[in-house]
């Protein structure tokens, strides 16, 4: 590889941890991100319902690169004035983006930098599978501008890797983590628990081993049976048995116990990090920020001068490619989101977070807020916590179940691992406060969101607690 262009070297080569003059990204201003979806995998995993495809004959990578650039151009034109958007994070997801050539990644990053200003300390993440990890390839990604990797390990037990349809071994996974840690500023890896025949003792041993290797971030997902997957077929036929709800709950509780004691706070339902190591791009999603979604099957949430748009592209790589070459983009669905729809989405995403949802921002986004009666009812059931700061403190009455971690004033206002960029502005009326789901509430999150959204009242009629 010949190395990055001057634009890439300037915009992307700095370590993310350097404070520099980066614009603060907070719950109130989540930033603007770019998501690039790479749809190809070496093998389709039986539990996976992501838009991933196996092409044993390979793919025409230069042709796809040209298509990514054209679709980026189209989205930039939809958004309008590029000076109004500064890219705070870029995420290459899939599929298996580590099957891309580093030169392709670098060219896409250069093109993004030509379309929008890029924060000098932008987080630039690439997902990788252990089987596709090579030291030289990782060095190439680093040179291209990637400064964070997320590795799909899924298990540290060879027998379970085989059950999950993974083609790498535990030895390869550990080697990949080692290479990544030596190459990048920030590293995360994924594990799946609540697997068939998994015991509490077995998970305790495996997770303890994983925590010892973790650089600062772990994603720990409970196995779920997704429709239209191979696991769904096996489950329906009784050939796949996963832990019952009570056993899965016990595994979840053990996960929180071990990660918390290791200093890896649960900042989102399935994500744990040391302070400052949270995934900034995923926080942008959960805080309901704007992002461009580019590539086969990508979703986006973009703001134009006239509307807030939800976009979705063609899922088939070949049809997406043909559409981009013919029309300049592969977008097959564009929805103009109403304020109420945006409020629903913000509620659904934000309640996944440990910091919860700022009701004042929810009111600003959608003009709506849950009714005081519904908030009090759910708090009394121990499903949410409702905090206000009208009196300078945190009001959590009715008394909820004890929180697994402190929710102090700074965390409630700003978010995990972040500090206030400026004093909190004076409000014309008392704050509506902030809500978050409790541990029990997170287990029934969809029901919780339905109840809260069904109670929505216009924000100007709401009274703070």
How would you characterize the overall build of this protein?
The N and C termini lie far apart (59 Å). The strands form five sheets. The protein has a nine-stranded mixed sheet with strand order 9-10-8-7-6-5-4-1-11, sandwiched between helices. Strands 12-13-14 form a three-stranded antiparallel sheet, with no helix packed on it. The protein has a three-stranded antiparallel sheet with strand order 15-18-17. With 465 residues, the protein is of the alpha/beta class. The model is unreliable at 1-22 and 390-427 (pLDDT under 50). It has helices spanning 6-12, 61-79, 102-115, 135-144, 158-163, 170-183, 200-213, 230-236, 245-261, 280-286, 317-327, 339-350, 359-366, 372-380, 409-414, 439-443, 445-454, and strands at residues 32-38, 40-41, 53-54, 87-94, 118-128, 148-154, 186-193, 217-222, 265-268, 271-273, 290-294, 299-303, 308-313, 331-336, 357-358, 368-369, 384-387, 434-437, 457-458.
Shape: globular
Low-confidence stretches: 1-22, 390-427
Helix count from the secondary structure assignment: 17
Number of domains: 2
Order of strands, main sheet, comes to: 9-10-8-7-6-5-4-1-11
**Name of the CATH class of the largest domain:** Alpha Beta
Q: Calculate Rg over CA atoms.
A: 22 Å
CATH topology grouping of the largest domain: pyruvate-formate lyase- activating enzyme
Number of strands: 19
Helix coverage percent of residues?
25-40%
N- to C-terminal distance: 59 Å
CATH superfamily of the largest domain: tm_1862 like domain
């Amino acid at each position: 590889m010949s190395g990055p262009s001057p634009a890439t070297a300037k915009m992307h080569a700095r370590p993310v941890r350097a404070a520099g003059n980066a614009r603060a990204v907070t719950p109130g201003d989540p930033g603007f991100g770019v998501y690039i979806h790479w749809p190809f995998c070496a093998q389709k995993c039986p539990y996976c319902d992501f838009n991933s495809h196996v092409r044993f004959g390979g793919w025409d990578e230069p042709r796809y690169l040209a298509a990514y650039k054209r679709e980026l151009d189209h989205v930039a034109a939809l958004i309008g004035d590029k000076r109004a958007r500064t890219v705070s994070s870029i995420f290459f997801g899939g599929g298996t983006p580590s099957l891309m050539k580093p030169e392709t990644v670098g060219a896409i990053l250069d093109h993004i930098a030509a379309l929008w200003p890029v924060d000098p300390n932008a987080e630039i993440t690439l997902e990788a599978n252990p089987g596709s990890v090579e030291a030289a390839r990782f060095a190439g990604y680093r040179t291209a501008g990637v400064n964070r990797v997320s590795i799909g390990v899924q298990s540290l037990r060879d027998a379970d890797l085989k059950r999950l349809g993974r083609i790498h071994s535990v030895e390869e996974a550990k080697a990949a983590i080692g290479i990544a840690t030596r190459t990048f500023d920030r590293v995360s890896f994924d594990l799946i628990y609540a697997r068939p025949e998994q015991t509490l003792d077995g998970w305790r041993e495996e997770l303890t081993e994983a925590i010892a290797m973790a650089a600062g971030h772990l994603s720990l997902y409970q196995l779920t049976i997704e429709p239209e997957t191979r696991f769904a077929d096996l489950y329906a036929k009784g050939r796949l048995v996963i832990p019952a709800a009570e056993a899965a709950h016990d595994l979840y509780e053990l996960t929180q116990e071990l990660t918390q004691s290791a200093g890896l706070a649960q900042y989102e339902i399935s994500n744990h990090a040391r302070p400052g190591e949270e995934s900034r791009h995923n926080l942008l999603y959960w805080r309901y920020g704007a992002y461009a979604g580019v590539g086969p099957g990508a979703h986006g949430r973009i703001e134009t001068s006239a509307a807030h748009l939800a976009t979705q592209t063609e899922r088939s790589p070949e049809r997406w490619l043909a559409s981009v070459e013919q029309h300049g983009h592969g977008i097959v669905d564009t929805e103009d989101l109403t304020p109420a729809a945006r409020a629903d989405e913000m509620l659904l995403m934000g309640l996944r977070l440990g910091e919860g949802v700022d009701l004042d921002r929810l009111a600003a986004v959608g003009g709506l807020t849950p009714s005081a009666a519904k908030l009090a009812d759910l708090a009394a059931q121990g499903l949410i916590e409702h905090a206000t700061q009208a009196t300078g403190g945190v009001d959590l009455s009715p008394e909820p179940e004890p929180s697994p971690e402190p929710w102090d004033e700074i965390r409630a206002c700003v978010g995990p691992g972040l500090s206030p960029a400026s004093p909190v502005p004076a409000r014309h009326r008392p704050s509506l406060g902030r809500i978050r789901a409790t541990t029990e509430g997170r287990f029934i999150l969809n029901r919780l969101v339905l109840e809260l959204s069904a109670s929505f009242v216009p924000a100007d009629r709401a009274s703070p607690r």
